[in-house]
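Q: Here's a chain of 235 amino acids. Please give me its 3D structure as tokens.
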Amino acid sequence: MPQDPMDFEWSYWIEWGRERILWLLAGHLLVSQVSRLLVEKYKPWCLMVYGMAACWLLLGIKGFAVILLHATISFAVAQFQLSLLTWLCSLILLSTLRIPAVEEAKRKWYDTENEYYLLLFTVSVRCLFCTSFSLEYCWHGPAQKSSHSFLWMLAYVFYYPTFHNGPLMNFDEFSKQMRRQEAFSLKTNLGILIVGIIRIFFWWCLAELMIHLMYIHALYSSAPPLEAASYWALG
């Protein structure tokens, strides 16, 4: 059965995944395990450097600079420890993505429209992470500020598995997991990896099945079938 051709986002991410993102995730896994074995204490910084390198590779130096600039501005505003100011900063940074002159300038950085959209998606998601870090910085007392340094913010913002699409993990949870010292067990880690691969494969197959059977996007992009259907059918 043919695939629904109207689901742009699914086709878009599948293409990027096959070309680069899947391989970069595999690289992250390798760096994570090697750093756990050899330099457990510096694992967050190893993953931070890897995430920055992956960002540079996919988005170029200008795209990398935009994300770094957003993180720097968010951290600077968080120093005032006012939640309202943090929200305003985040909204202003997001609004810059819709300024026509800025959009046009960013499009010129790339050869294809897909590369520009990758920057757009990534910056939007990174803005959520910057907001999360800044809010938690505002909420915590002076004694906890040392664990919310700019270096930790970069480790959080450039953590690659959540880099393009999330999911969103708040900074406290991220920090807790990164600081936790775990004994290395090949059997346990291999089991976690296999279960993770099975889960991803299952949901991927389910999504593909829906695209080939349900034609959701093709339906809502065509007015006549929707107008002909009853309210119960639409519901």
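Q: Can you summarize the key feature?
A: The two ends are 25 Å apart (CA to CA).
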